[in-house]
């Protein structure tokens, strides 16, 4: 049974007792009168209805970061429960795979409409479970709706059978077909509970797979709500199974049964999953951590760059794999940029209500808060300067921390190279673009990067020299991530495989080539001896090259 968040949060609150609201700290905003509370939204009836879909015989619980209070009692799955969930998914999958591709895709389009019209329900849940600001929760609605529209429209083109050139054109008829992997095991983290649950499952469903999903326990209600909506949109009951529990127990059980593993989470866990999937010879995609760099060139529009840095560094309180944790600024504009960035950062409003209005919400757990505090305190002790923030803010909620800018960070400090996964950015000055690119690339990660310049061509040229799976020019992360027709994923320690675009759905399939030979056999025939056959075929090869046959 897990009850760590509440206990740890209250312990933090005790440690910080007497910490008055700092006069020069970020302002806190209350939600408008009449805003529903977490308790009014997450009712026992709602929890009972949603958790009925979990295969689990034990019990666990989730908590809301806004207060640390218990949010929901949840079933917990044993490895036997996981096996049973896979059994049900396997039984349901063949008839789903036999459903015409266009009908499967149509489920996604209906889901798109349902999601947009019922978004306030899920915004309440995402906020209650993660503590993020409502605007940041809304980004999840937008990205999931985009993926539903994209795969709803494009899955038939991505996955439909395709004719290929045969070994002897016209005489060899070749078709490439895409078969679903079978049952996908999906393991998701807590930071984007809608996007990283249903958002990543949509292409798997469209491709004809069943999914056994293990969301993070703390954010399970959002995934269960999305499942209910998918059933309403027409997904057959058995196709999406949900299991819950401790990652090191339930996660390996999911990997042990899956025909393909879709994982999003830390690099450390990703390596374990890669080892287990490799031992079973099943494929996996791994969307892992990052230490992303933003480059502000001397010709950048500084107002836009400041606004981009605010969103890029502090969206979801920095608990975003593609957020910016390293900010490289051309020294000729650094003072002006940093003055404006720090001033805007100090004015960001913190808030814990289920309404729009707060600029930043809470951290999700005591573990995240501890990492943020360790990184900030160690840097300060080593001589780094705070340009903004730096404080834990229990006056707003037990897990709130101010958006923080650090200057003078040394390579020896943890915050320099380790992923903080919180609202903390380190700033560095550079003299030449060469130096900026080299320093941005000096990391084992390679997830996302951002370049700010008035010269789009120059920005795109620099982007190609950055070692990152996505690079945004004059945007922090949303331009690339939101462009769901194009692949998104990481290099190096940031992972393997891609979500979005053709690759994001093809990964959930196995390619099968069906080749039918007609009229002429592929060997000596019609009285040709071996030597004459070989000469004839060699001539044929030359002719095919001359005729530009591919
Ligand atoms: P985590 O690796 O601790 O947990 C992720 C999921 O894996 C959870 O569901 C967890 O229960 C499960 N898990 C834990 N141990 C496991 C094991 N041994 N076997 C199988 N499953 C296990 O990561 P987290 O702290 O929850 O998430 C934060 C990390 O996720 C950050 O590093 C962040 O950068 C990364 N992330 C990456 C992306 C991306 O798209 N690249 C997106 C979001 C988050």
Can you describe this structure?
The protein has 550 residues and is of the alpha/beta class. It folds into three domains: 79-288, 3-Layer(aba) Sandwich (Aldehyde Dehydrogenase, Chain A, domain 1), CATH 3.40.605.10; 292-488, Aldehyde Dehydrogenase, Chain A, domain 2 (3-Layer(aba) Sandwich); 523-550. It contains 20 helices and 20 strands. The strands form five sheets. Strands 14-15-16-12-11-17-18 form a seven-stranded mixed beta sheet, sandwiched between helices. It has a six-stranded mixed beta sheet with strand order 8-7-6-9-10-19, sandwiched between helices. Strands 4-5-20 form a three-stranded antiparallel beta sheet, with no helix packed on it. Strand 6, helix 8 (195-206) and strand 7 (210-214) form a beta-alpha-beta unit. Helix 5 (101-117) runs antiparallel to helix 7 (134-159), helix 6 runs antiparallel to helix 9 (220-233) and helix 7 (134-159) runs parallel beside helix 8. The radius of gyration is 26 Å and the shape is globular. Nicotinamide-adenine-dinucleotide is lined by residues 187-192, 196, 214, 216, 247-248, 251-252, 264-266, 269, 272-273, 287-290, 321, 419, 421, 447, 490, 495.
Quaternary state of the chains: single chain
Overall mean pLDDT score? Answer: 95
Largest sheet: 7 strands, mixed
Low-confidence parts: 6-19
Strand order of the largest sheet: 14-15-16-12-11-17-18
Domain count: the total is 3
Distance between the termini: 60 Å
* Tally of DSSP helical segments: 20
- Level-2 CATH architecture of the largest domain: 3-Layer(aba) Sandwich
**CATH domain class of the largest domain:** Alpha Beta
- Total beta strand runs: 20
Shape: globular
**Which radius of gyration do the C-alpha atoms yield?**
26 Å
Instruction: Tell me the helix content.
Output: 40-55%
